[in-house]
Specification:
single chain; mainly alpha; two-stranded antiparallel sheet; 4 helices; about 50% helix; elongated; disordered N terminus
Length: about 110
């Protein structure tokens, strides 16, 4: 299997909830006749390899979405985040958990 930094991934949408849990969304057309297991395999590949690549880009994406607004204020307004650094720590913990393949959620961040 290829290393995470050499895998080309093209996820449609990556969201973060107010607990810092990543939500991966892949959109497929109803006319897409690929086998369901191929689509599931694609999502598992994103979850296993993509999180290592996305970790560095998420803060930049929030800053871009915030526009001229302070990214911390943007997170507070959009998600009700009071502790911005705590939120980013939770995001990192959740991404690390996803990368580890653990079967239980990190403490305090069960969706």
């Amino acid at each position: 299997m290829a290393a995470a930094d050499s895998v080309e991934l093209s996820l449609d949408h990556l969201f973060l909830d107010q607990s810092g849990v990543p939500v991966l969304v892949e959109v497929k057309r109803a006319s897409d006749t690929r086998a369901r297991r191929k689509v599931v395999a694609q999502m598992l590949d994103y979850a296993a390899n993509g999180v290592a690549m996305w970790q560095n880009d998420l803060r930049d994406a929030v800053a871009q979405a915030a526009g001229v607004m302070d990214p911390g204020a943007f997170l507070q307004e959009q998600l009700g985040i009071e502790d911005v650094e705590g939120f980013w720590a939770a995001v990192e913990d959740n991404l690390r958990w996803a990368r580890s393949g653990s079967s239980s959620w990190p403490t305090g961040s069960c969706p």
